[in-house]
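Table S2 (text version). Query chain:
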Amino acid sequence: MGTRKKRGLPVELESVRRRFEAWRRNRTVRTRIPAALWQAAVKAAERHGVHRAAKALRIDYYGLKKRVEEAGSSAGMPAKGDVATFVELAGPLSAGSVECLVELEDDSGAKMRVHLKGVEAPDLVALSGSFWGVPS
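Corresponding structure-token output:
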């Protein structure tokens, strides 16, 4: 297909990798990466992933990630004048899907189990009070 090099890198990422290697050969020690190379690295990371790009380009993962996030904060966001025209809100669950299981047990071993399906739950304080003989 011609879109991948022998090393398994996509052509675009391989091209940026070669630019970084050429810069490394010609730079003086401890100079900063030029803005144009960072921009190319960010584009490659957006397309191929931060980890893969950082590894292929031999640059700091977290530095690249930070720049990708900064670029993403403005890229792909709606313009200031854009306003959403439709917002969908999820409504409450239908009454038919309500299910409740209440199990009570006292010290003497007496048990009460109430299984409610499709109805609203009763006043649980009053129900438990009547089971334990506590006036409400």
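Notes on Table S2: The first strand starts at residue 99 and ends at 105. The chain has two domains: 11-74, 95-132.
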